[in-house]
Design brief:
Layout lengths: L4 E6 L6 E6 L4 E7 L2 E6 L4 E6 L5 E4 L4 E5 L6 E6 L8 E2 L2 H11 L7
Antiparallel strand pairs: 1-8, 2-7, 2-9, 3-6, 3-8, 4-5, 4-7
């Protein structure tokens, strides 16, 4: 993955970050210090991953809904993206996201 953008999330114990999906951006989240939880969701399932060790990370492909929360007071989360920021590719409404993933999902017909 070629990295075009990066930023750090620092000291946000009471905040929820993310709460969106991206049409084309992929992300790698790396825990630098402290801890944080990442909830990822697609059409079929949801998982919560606790990043609580230095250098522990998670790859998040496009079209997954993501929330980052429960940051410790010393949390530093490094976020890497394969795309430059483009507000038009963000889906910030959860209901809209669910409608899109249901519509774009193709089912295999069984005989």
């Amino acid at each position: 993955m070629k990295i075009y953008e990066h930023y750090k999330i620092i000291e946000l114990p009471e905040m929820i970050r993310g709460s969106h999906a991206n049409r084309k951006s992929e992300f790698v989240l790396i825990n630098v210090a402290g801890s944080a939880k990442v909830k990822i969701e697609d059409r079929f399932s949801m998982a919560v991953i606790e990043l609580n060790k230095p250098r522990m990370g998670i790859y998040i492909p496009s079209m997954l809904w993501k929330d980052m929360y429960d940051f410790s007071k010393d949390a530093v989360l490094l976020v890497l993206s394969n795309e430059h920021y483009d507000a038009d590719e963000y889906i910030r409404d959860y209901k809209e996201y669910k409608e899109i993933v249901v519509k774009e999902c193709t089912f295999i017909k069984r005989k």
